[in-house]
Write a structure and sequence with these properties.
The structure is a single chain. The chain contains five helices and five strands; from the N terminus they run H-E-E-H-E-E-H-E-H-H. The protein has a five-stranded antiparallel β-sheet with strand order 2-1-3-4-5, sandwiched between helices. Helices cover 30% and strands 25% of the residues. It has helices at residues 20-34, 63-73, 108-117, 144-148, 152-161, and strands at 42-52, 55-57, 76-88, 91-103, 139-141.
Length: 170
């Protein structure tokens, strides 16, 4: 079980012309490096990015930007990329989960009701599949937990590689 949650303080802005998958992987690595930890401590960090082609749709700044993101995604397939980084001492293990998601076109009433609920805040692309926006997603291909924000199969493999006993006997 984790004994501390220490949010890393890094600049999450994409670099000029940075593509979504390398951007997401870089953020997970930088987060893991930014956390102060002892040599035997295990640090787990992740980052999730929504990509529409080469365009990164990060966390919307306000409801207007969230509405713009959701309108862009409506009726189209996009990718949700989650990069996971596990650090123990000087060693770093990383994995990425890339899933395809289709969001339906939202009516004005659906969009406005979703925005009023505030669930879009702090969410890449302006939505969370595990919440009310799940009703807008008719199709996915890939990892549901990766779309939520922490791909469990990949995370378990990384923790095991770092020496954490994922499967302990009770």
């Amino acid at each position: 079980m984790p004994d501390a949650i220490l949010p890393p303080d890094i600049d999450e802005d994409p670099k000029k012309a940075e593509l979504p998958r390398p951007y997401c992987a870089r953020l997970a690595r930088e987060k893991a490096a930014a956390v102060q930890a002892g040599p035997d401590d295990i640090v787990l960090c992740a980052d999730t990015t929504v990509a529409l082609g080469r365009r990164i749709l990060g966390k919307p700044r306000d409801a207007g930007e969230a509405a713009h993101f959701l309108t862009l995604l409506g009726g189209r397939r996009h990718e949700v990329i989650t990069a996971v980084a596990v650090r123990r001492g000087d060693r770093l293990w990383t994995r990425e989960s890339v899933s395809a998601v289709k969001m339906k076109r939202l009516s004005d009433a659906e969009l406005n009701a979703y925005l009023m609920g505030g669930e879009w805040q702090g969410k890449a692309g302006g939505y969370a599949i595990q919440g009310a926006a799940g009703a807008f997603i008719p199709w996915i291909s890939g990892s549901f937990t990766g779309i939520v924000g922490l791909p469990l199969a990949e995370t378990a493999a990384l923790l095991q590689a770092a020496g954490y006993p994922v499967w302990r006997q009770p």
